[in-house]
Design brief:
Blueprint: H1 3-29, H2 32-37, E1 39-46, E2 54-56, H3 57-67, E3 73-74, E4 77-88, E5 91-107, E6 117-130, E7 133-147
Parallel strand pairs: 1-7
Antiparallel strand pairs: 1-2, 3-5, 4-5, 5-6, 6-7
Amino acid sequence: MTQRVELATVLDRLAVDELVTDYAVTVDDGDWAGYRALFAPDGRADYREAGGVEGSADEIARWLTSTMELFPMRQHLIVNRKVHFDSVDREIGDTARVQADYFNPMRFAGEGSAPDFVCGGRYAFDLVRTQGGWRLHRVTVHEKWRRMPERAPAGA
């Protein structure tokens, strides 16, 4: 591998890492225009394993807009990122896959609301290089666990 290819690989890894971080931040901040901008024009997301829906970036952004109103506080942590680039003639191609674990504490809305709702799992991000840089082609959520607030017994 030449130094030029190695430098390009490092720059691509940094760009992919920034894209995954931007994904978490836009969801946490409720920046749905920013969320849509992270996707390629034909990008899709699948939240069904976490109790959600599957659809285009626009459809998912609309669903998240209403769903996240339940949780005014959310802090999405995406860690343990494994990045795999396709290659063409020993150089990085125009697609990549990222596998990353997430830990997601959220607080329910409302006065006297229940304690945190917390879930965790793994994302599968399929990325594509566009003229505007790396974009999400597909996001799939694989929820592994969740902790719901304990309800107080009736009459307590």
